[in-house]
Amino acid sequence: MTSRNAVVVGGNRTPFVKAGGKYAMASAQDLMTAALDGLVARFGLSGQRVDEVVGGAVLKHTRDFNLTRESVLGSALSPLTPACDLQQACCTGLEAVVYASNKIKLGQARLAIAGGVDSASDAPIVVTEPLRKALLALNRARSLPEKLAAIAKIRPGDLMPVPPGVVEPRTGMSMGESQAMTTKKWGISREDQDELSLASHRNLAKAWDEGFFDDLVTPYLRVAKDGILRPDTTREALAKLRPVFGKGDTATMTAGNSTALTDGAAVVLLAEEEEARGRGWPVLAKVIDAQVAASDYVNGADDLLLAPAQAIPVLLERNALTLADFDFLEFHEAFASTVLATLKSLEQAGVGTVDRTKLNVKGSSLAAGHPFAATGARIVASLAKMLAEKGPGSRGLISICAAGGQGVVAILEA
Amino acid sequence: MSVLEMIYGTPAGKFVARKAGLSDPPKLRRGRVLPTGPVVLGELAGGGIARETLRLLGIDAGQPILDEPGARVKDDKGRDVPPRYPAKPGAIVIDATGLRQITQLEGIRALLRPVMRSLEGSGRIIILATDASAVEGLEAKAVAQGIDGIDRTVGKELRGGATTNLVFLKEGVRPSDLASTLSFLLEGRSAFVDGQTWRVGPAEVTHDLTPRPFEKRIVVVTGAARGIGAAIARTFARDGATVVAVDMPASGDALAKVANEIGGSTLQLDITAADAGAKITDHIASRYGHEARIWAIVHNAGITRDKMLANLDEKQWAAVLDVNLAAEMRINDFLLAGDRPGGLGEEARIVGIASTSGVAGNKGQTNYAASKAGVMGYVWALKDELEGRPITINAVAPGFIETEMTAAIPFVQREIFKRTNSLSQGGNPVDVAETLAYLCGPASGGVNGQVIRVCGQNLIGA
């Protein structure tokens, strides 16, 4: 079999902003179209056909059943560009990159765009189950009495919409509550969490100041910079925040060390290596390998967000690598304590220790924000650029956890 | 919109405005469009280049009518009037390249008088003369300057959007060197260029004139996200260019819109960065391949920090000079220093943007005027430094151009600015773009070291 490499050529994202903020009126499709258009412009692809665009969202309207294809149609890409939707909670963006890379490696595509979008502002509103059933009955009703009977079944209480929430259907617990249990179980201190959060803000602020995002981000709706970023935050300011997850005196998780609900979109341009070189395009990094894992959090045997700790050893083993072989480690910061618990878990399992100076050096989700499905593409594009700057042979590890107890990890190499 | 502006927009308001002398300005012919009426050639003794150049353009020039005493006719009041053209001429090209004596200037008068009232709307008067540096003797040199006076005055007397311009020919200029200039002046592309004078010399490399001169050529436009810059990007793309649209990272979304519309690519870049030149060449090499070279770079990015000098601090002073002048020079230095992937081609075009503010000064714009006059000085100096290389450097100096920026000027002031020129209106961004595209044309290799005003012959700094 011919061996083909899938390489990261570049990326683009919108700035990320807090839900209900400047993107409140933008739909997921608007955001994804904007991310695509910025990428198309950066690479002069207007009117051109890409073999496939793959992306998705976590919070998705039923009207968005064909979100990625509709975004492509709204973008400057050729309408002959096929697209597919994919969804794996917060892993969506990274899984999209894996999907597209695999197609490239198999020769099914030479050029692909992968990414994701989420708008917590544009989240679908769900009605109560009695109201939904009554409305369906009304729809089926033929005669006036039947219609009236259907309407009569509706009680005032049924009219309240069901608020959207990040709740695990199996446990009924919010992600923050689940993580609070993990935090307690692994003994992650408030100080360590705040420290990680502080580093995230400082690193991201520095990267913005250095112009690192000049060719990774395209402004949208008059927003040119990530809105969640607090360049001036301090240890003291973070320490003052009241815990929001967990109970009693032992609660340590605050709004400062947990990611906020965020709106934004991110995409990555991937190509078969020869194709990229033939076009004179930058070959920032190769997508080497990826691994997915799931944890049995329902029965309490595992933690909801620590599935990456299971995927990483498998990935390292298969590629004959250790944690020390990586120049950069990109651990998605769902919560500061998720990252810290994952690191602790890896250490305890004998996988190895992560050199903290190589961890999230350009900031991560705590400072940038986390539009669920967009995070993977944000990380892939940034890491690929960091590796290209570091030089040939440099390596990076990506770890992303997700709802449903899943995790995707991947290796990039310059 | 101010109350005044709203009243002005009503039919009654317009009626009052007309009574006050603020009639609707003529609508200018724009684009790659020739005049409707015939092109007339007035060839004076010793000329000849105009006829050959018009032939290159495929234009069959008509005969001129001369205002000679014997040819005059009586009007209904019994006064002597010059003979009339049977049909309104669209343009008259006056070949005065052979004029050396003061008495010969009469030939220009005799050619011009019959057209002054009969030229069609947006008609053209184009005068060709020999540059003073290429003629012998004091009288001949004085005559050259005399023609300049004619051009400037005629521009102020013409009505209906008609313009006049003078081109001085340098030693050794050939019809193929002149073709792009004559074509530009005849067509609507030069709509807002009026009463101007510039010089054309022999090109080091000659190219044929084509309607899509930038096909397969890369043109870099800074400040391309909006206003004049976006118009420049669109105009070059219309003429076939692959445009690299550069602007500040914060304007990236507007920039992407422009680039996607014209099939170009974006480079989000602060041009004042020390490595801006390298960023530009890296971008080009990584998008269009190692062999790709820049055909033209348009230094359009600019800022204003307007303040009366009494209130002007060092920060506002430095910012304007750095963006408008120093950055352009740093980028050019880098590009001119050597051949590199994505760098400047052998035979490239560099163009900058000056301003009538740099020519005449403008209250509250010391910093801006310094930077824009600086661009002019730089163009003249760099042209000399590039002697022997087939690279050209030129600039345009826009007058009042209708953009988002000028729309912010209070209504009354804006109306005054707009109307104080020979065409009684503001120019469009595309007018600046067309002039830049003409200067960057492959066939314009003989136009070098020129600063052309696109100002409708603004009264200020004329």
TrEMBL record, chain A:
A matching Pfam family: Thiolase_N
Active site residues according to the UniProt entry: 90, 370, 401
Residue span(s) of domain Thiolase N-terminal: 7-274
Cellular component terms per the entry's GO annotation: cytosol
InterPro entries for this protein: 3-ketoacyl-CoA_Thiolase, Thiolase, Thiolase-like, Thiolase_C, Thiolase_N
Ranges for domain Thiolase C-terminal: 284-413
Keyword Transferase: yes
Keyword Ribosomal protein assigned: no
Keyword tags: Acyltransferase, Transferase
Entry GO MF terms: acyltransferase activity, transferring groups other than amino-acyl groups
SUPFAM superfamilies per UniProt: Thiolase-like
UniProt similarity note: Belongs to the thiolase-like superfamily. Thiolase family.
Protein name in the entry: Acetyl-CoA acetyltransferase
From TrEMBL, chain B:
Domain of life, source organism: Bacteria
Pfam hit, one: adh_short_C2
Residue ranges of every copy of the Ketoreductase domain listed in the record: 217-404
A molecular function (GO) term: oxidoreductase activity, acting on the CH-OH group of donors, NAD or NADP as acceptor
Family: Belongs to the short-chain dehydrogenases/reductases (SDR) family.
Protein name (database record): 3-oxoacyl-ACP reductase
Organism: Tessaracoccus aquimaris
